[in-house]
What we know:
- The chain is an alpha/beta fold.
- It is built from 4 helices and 4 strands.
- Strands 2-1-3-4 form a 4-stranded parallel beta sheet, with helices on both faces.
Amino acid sequence: MKLYVAGPMTGILGMNFPAFYQAAAALLACGYEVVNPADAGQGEGTWLDYMRRDITDLLTCDGIALLPGWASSKGAFLEVTIFKALGLPVRRLDEWLEVTTS
Length: 102
């Protein structure tokens, strides 16, 4: 199963990349394939540029793993809205990790 990591980036020190990388590593260790938007790094693009790329990547996934604070992120909220509209699974990171470890 391929999971997309979603959470807040804007306004967080280091774009919250450490949390994204930690989540991706934990999911990979449980056997998931992972799409981590932090892997694209920080470039010169606008928020819209990032969201266009992220939504394209998101649509290749089977589920979303949510980081703490996701609901306060405009981008993560949009990603979750898309997945819910498509009827695809949306869970907190810890819930995805429990599925494979229980």
